[in-house]
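Reopening this ticket.

The earlier resolution said the output was attached, but the attachment link was broken on my side. Pasting everything inline this time so it's all in one place.
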Amino acid sequence: MSTTEPSAPAVSQGIKRRRDGDDLPDYKRQRPNFVQPAFPRLRKLFTCLGEPSRFPLPESISHCAKSFTSVEFDEEVVLSLFSLFVNISIEQPLKVFSLAASLQCVNNTESSHGAAVVKYIVERMQTYINAGDWNNVKLVLRFLIMLKPIISNFEAIVGFIEQLLERAIELKSMCTGRSPLAEELYKVVLLSIPYLVVSDSSDEMKKNATELFEKSKDYKHSAIRAEELLNPFVDGETPYRLSDSLELLQLQLSNLVAANWELQLLYDYSTVAPASEFEKHSIEELQLPEKLSAWNSSKSPEVFLKFYTNEQVETTPPVDRIESTIFRDLLTDTLINLNFNRQEVARQLIWFDNFLRPGLFAPREMSLEKLSQAKPGSSTWKPEDIAIEAVLAGLFRLPQSLLKPVYFHSVLIEACILAPHAIAPVFGRAIRFLYSHLEHLDVQVIYLYADWFSHHLSNFGFTWKWREWTEDLNLNELNPKRVFFRELIYKELRLSFPQRITETLPDEFSDLVHEGDDVPPFQFALPDEPYSEQSRLVLQNIRDRKGPDEFTEVFDEITKKSEELNGKADAHDMVCEIFVTAIVHLGARSLSHVESWIERTLPVLRVVCPEKGGESHRRVVKIIFKYWKDQTGTAVQVVKKLMNHKVITPLSVVEWILLDSDVGTFSKGYSWELLGFAIDKAKLQIKEVEAVPRTIEDEDGDTKLLAAEKLKEIDDSIETLKNTLNHIFVTIVKELARPVQGDAKNEETVRWQRWWKEGFLRAVLRNYHADYKDLQEPLKNLGLTDMFILNSIEQTAEL
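Inline output:
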């Protein structure tokens, strides 16, 4: 073997040098052959099933099945796929029908896969039953029902639905009032019955469904008075007949039975894989525990909300048809369970009609005018109307939406961005519907409406046809429409700046734009003010981070001068006003700045605002709103931060709203926001003390109870905080029950003042009914004579 290195090949002049081997006669560069792992590929196929595609739906279903059966997996990957199927049925319930059809094709090709899938789904469902997660039970049960062609003992599913019904009837019979758990079980049963016929329209299955429905009549559901509190429309001015969801389901199923179960919702999946070809598998019977739990049951009844009524054509299913509830249920579960991906939620809302039978809906983006000219017998149901109505129903759900309102705002904005031509007109009709009923809307709904509309406008250039509402500027200042203008424009200002908003408004609305200073001046430090020198010294001391003792001299000077000018009574008030205003002024650049200055001056603040100083705490709130009089939203955030740092108490904030403000305050959104935060803060303080550990570990690692004195201190603190919360509710009811004073000249103003006070009280009683349940009798014994308040207190006991 030669030990010499091989010489480098000669390079011809003028010829491009190639990579080694490129000049060989047989050389052909190969592209890297990348094969996507099986699980990610299948996950994408199954999660996109039913979405718009260049392939027909039957072809997509068959392709998913073939891709699944053509690959061998280890056990871990198979379990991941099975888990994916169940998750799709829960998070994307609109796709469960196509998914079930694809799994039936899988079973037709490889029956062992079908048997394993069904077994896994039953096991997962049993875990949800044991955990009391009844919404997931409803969704996975629907998945099993749609897999009927491959289940040999389907009577086990029907039997389980019957068990649920029997338990619901039993629980209902054991209580005189409402039973939230019984209602949850009953709802699962009623929503499952139609899918039995959807999965199998044979006479035998219709007979089973009819028997279940007849038996469901033994559940004695009756409407409760509290439904009035859940109605977004007040004064008996509901634009349609309002029904709670269970009462409505009973009516709809009764109509469906009368129509011999004619319900054609789905694509004809028998064309993909005829049922006779499937090999069937036996499943284990589902077991109900002796003691049922309901960790996610709704604590209040639900009412069915509509926002597209009195149209020239019927764009949504009538409320007496089961389709209206089925569509709402599918869309609501998608909204709530897929909330971690609002873009995907918006896409599925837009494609809603893709997942159901062709011809069930009118074509997307069709105008009302064209729909009114549609051929007889053709559908006039607009899928975008049905989808957006479901989102709005979730947003305006009382007493609270299931998720934060801003989530529903974001979904609506995403939908409008993805399909502006289809969604924008639907929004416009909903906005006008709500506006036309403003004088009969619940106060809380008005605030929610203003929040959503301002957020929506901020994403689309703040453009709106304001001239439609110009005439309503002449209404009384406390009329809900005038209040809506004020609140909406103010919220726009918080999201932008005055000049930008003024450019988008007609001249008639320009007076509603208040252009305050970005950073209001510190009035006390102005040269002509009597406390100018002391105020500048206070500012300097704060900047130098001096302690309480170092403020004594300047505080004494302020006190002395105040006594000379105003008398001794107001001396300390002036110290408080100058010091608090100085902190707010220094932090005026941003909320993070004011937070920083509050934290730096906490020791001095606690001297200026004593811990038990009710009057002084209310004065602090007044000072902050005086400084930020043109930007009350900023004032609200500053007050919240002072409550968080326990400089002022929640009770003092509530008292400021109720005792120190005029009646018109109840029409202002910041009052509602601040009152709700104060009550929530008082509740949180109780939870924080209750969470304090009552045991400690000694040096040997043994656990022992705290000393008796320490335990008593914790219990006393909890008792004090609970009494404070009760005092807050008593104060709210007592003060809002006071009659509004006025004369004949201001009769309309007095009427609207009373309307806002009643709406304010109604919202508080509804939202916090669980927190003052022990105060039902004490509240009635306050000597109240107003029947509206007494009726509201009694109604909340039924929630």
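Reporter confirms the inline version is readable. The CA atoms of residues 222 and 247 lie 8 Å apart. The two ends are 96 Å apart (CA to CA).
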